Amino acid sequence: MSALALAGAPPATRPLRFLLTSPLWGVLAGVMLLLDPLVLDGRWAPPAAALVHVFTLGVLGNAMLGSLLQFLPVAAATPIPGANLAPWLHACLNAGLVLLVAGLYRLPGLLAPASVLLAAALLGIAVPTVPVLLRAGSQRLLRAGIGLALAMLTGTVLLGMLAAAVLGGHIVLPLDRLADGHASFGIGGWMLLLLGTVGATTVPMFQGTAAVPPRALKLWLATSAALLAAASVARLSGAPSWLPAAALAGPVLAFSGTVLWLQWHAPHRRNLPLLRFWRAGCLAIATAALLACAAALDLHERAAVLAGVLGIGIGLPLLVNGMLLEIVAFITWVALRGRCPRGVRIPPVGRLLPDAEKHAVLLAHLGSALLLASAVAWPALRPAAGLALLASYALQLACLLRCLRRAEDFGRTHGAALVQADTKAAAT
Questions:
Q1: pLDDT tens digits along 180-211
Q2: Distance, CA of 196 to CA of 220 (rounded, Å)
Q3: Residue 22: which of 328, 372, 307 has the closest Cα?
Q4: Considering the entire predicted model, what is its pTM?
Q5: How far apart, in Å, are the Cα atoms of 329 and each of 99, 350, 363?
Q6: Could you tell me the residue range of the domain that residue 285 belongs to?
Q7: What does the pLDDT look like over 349-379, one tens digit per residue?
Q8: Which CATH number is 362's domain given?
Q9: 412 assigned to some structural domain
Q10: Of 350, 354, 358, 353, which is closest to residue 395 (Cα–Cα)?
């Protein structure tokens, strides 16, 4: 932590409003599955699309944007232009997602305002930040990787707006091609590239692994972006559906294999809960990538749904949720450090959010993941999977709130006590 620019940390409320919203959407995903078991029947059904976006925009989107608001100023020394608009961007993102879910279910007229609000939120962060990242400065590879991920996010948004216009009946375009391109840019280009870039810094820092060689990271970023962009353009031009699946599989398998290898050979293995979150997440997304390729080749719908569940509903959330626990605890520690006067011994991050609570959240997520994957094949398990999903995200939220409460209690008692003692000493 000493190498981080803590003085550049934003106000804690700025990233926390996104990070604490993330598990609320996980709770909603559980409710959706509990009330509508048919949501897992097919990837093209509107309820399935709604559930996918609850995960990608609600759970993952809030977590990743909130993390960026903290990570860029602290780890990359890059202030985000217009970061003071974070409350409005947060409102646009989540209000837009509410309208999108409602539009996909029953009210297609809401798709247009939903796409406008979502575009305003996502582009409001991506567009002004990319030029800042590309300027000369330290951490050039880190900045370039995040800038590339944000550029892919921009492409994701544009393709998503086109898909919303098609669903709303405003234009006529092949929806399946748009959806595949949208998914390639979003899952592979935005999410995976961001996780890989940020992970190159955080995995050695938090898990005690060796560092990723810069040349390897640079090669992976360039190759992945080129493959995903080329496959998406080809798919939009009429190429078969297996092409974007294969293009995504390569970067996913390289990412997962690297993380697992680094963990296995870690010289100073630490933070076991996070390590296990990422181990399970990497195994899930690697399996999802292989299964998606197989499903695209033989057009097996159930296999395609299982690939989506493993990747979007299980694997990526495990990676992101594991880091979310660490980031919220770290943000809380930084805020407490700034709040308490000199002379107060601040409790370490591990006391604000103990490993035992992280492990409990991990076990809850793994249990819900097992039920969720099984529910694809056995529909009778879907209500139980929805309930387990709801419970795991509710437990995660409760864990985060306890972390904040511990910091608040410490700051209130120790900080106030020290101020009172100093006042008495001065009077004497």
A1: 999 999 999 999 999 999 999 999 988 989 99
A2: 9
A3: 328
A4: 0.92
A5: 32, 8, 19
A6: 10-403
A7: 889 999 999 999 999 999 999 999 999 989 9
A8: 1.20.210.10
A9: no
A10: 358
